Amino acid sequence: MLAAKTNKQEICKLQLYTLGRFEIYQKDKGFYSISARATKLWYLFKYLLLNKGKGIPPETILEHLYPDEEYENPRNTLQNIVYRLRKVLSQDEFFNSCSCNILYNNGCYSLYFNDDVFLDTDIFEGYIQKADSLININPNEATLWYENALKLYQGDYFPELIYEDWVIPKRNYYRRLYTQSVLKLVKLYQQKKEFDKSIKTCEQAIQIEPYEEGLHIALIENLMNMGRIKEAIDNYNTYTSMLYKQFGIK
Q: How far apart are CA 148 and CA 123, in angstroms?
């Protein structure tokens, strides 16, 4: 069952990656190259992707995406951007036969695509939900689901949009989901006395979330469980020093 689920990444023709990078991939065509002249188009695409499944009024889109720009006719400006994005999705050779487009219903725009499109955030959440449902019933299978979920998380959601307010709530949500899942997986390893796996998982997570206190505590605990006291102390000193230098926290 797990193999069948995790094969979606290989089966889906169009694959969208947003965790740690923004990339569009097709198995037989490779990665899509976004033209510098199409920045506004893909900016809109990312906004609609973040709000997937929701209809967004033009006024809200303009308010979020272009708050400092003044247009004589903002609605027409947005319609033009939508038209050009639709043209890319429907006519660009890369997206041939891919079910991905912009819909307009009841005065709102939304991004539409079928289940045959792989979106890393959807799969990431799905794996974690499955793991959470099995954690007390079948810990071994839950471990596999967590492991597969963590492989998908390569870093912050839309990291190239680090200063955009409309991205922050979702970014924090996925970051929290990732951290919580790491700690749950570490506990599962601890229950089986697999402290080496716990340590490796913590170290990998710290590379992505270097300031997350829970990850450092888990790493130190597992080092101590293996009798690696000096390493535990070194990690404690490194982390506390980093907090002091970055945030002035003792």
A: 10
pLDDT tens for residues 212-245? 999 999 999 999 999 999 999 999 999 988 888 8
Half-sphere exposure of 95 (CA within 13 A, CB side): 17
Question: Hey, what amino acid is at 185?
Answer: L
Q: Which whole-number Å values give the CA distances from 94 to 22, 31, 35, 112, 237, in the listed order?
A: 16, 9, 13, 17, 50
CB-side exposure of 26: number of CA atoms within 13 Å?
A: 13
Q: What is the pLDDT of residues 4-39, one digit of tens each?
A: 455 666 666 789 999 999 999 988 889 998 887 788
Q: Return the number of other C-beta atoms located less than 10 Å from residue 250's C-beta.
A: 6
Q: What is the DSSP string of 69-92?
A: ---SSHHHHHHHHHHHHHHHHHHS
Record the tokens describing residue 70, joined without a space.
Answer: 């003044």
Which tokens go with 68?
Answer: 């400092």
**Closest of 148, 178, 128, 157 to residue 50, by C-alpha:** 157
80: number of Cβ within 10 Å: 12
Give the whole-angstrom CA distance, residue 225 versus residue 228: 8
Instruction: Return d(Cα 167, Cα 184) in angstroms, integer.
Output: 26
CB 146 within 8 A of CB 189: no
Distance CA 60, CA 63 (A): 5
Q: Residue 204: beta bridge partners?
A: none
Show the tokens assigned to 101. 């487009």
Task: Give CA–CA dist 131/114, Å, rounded.
Answer: 25
User: Can you give the pLDDT at residue 153?
Assistant: 97
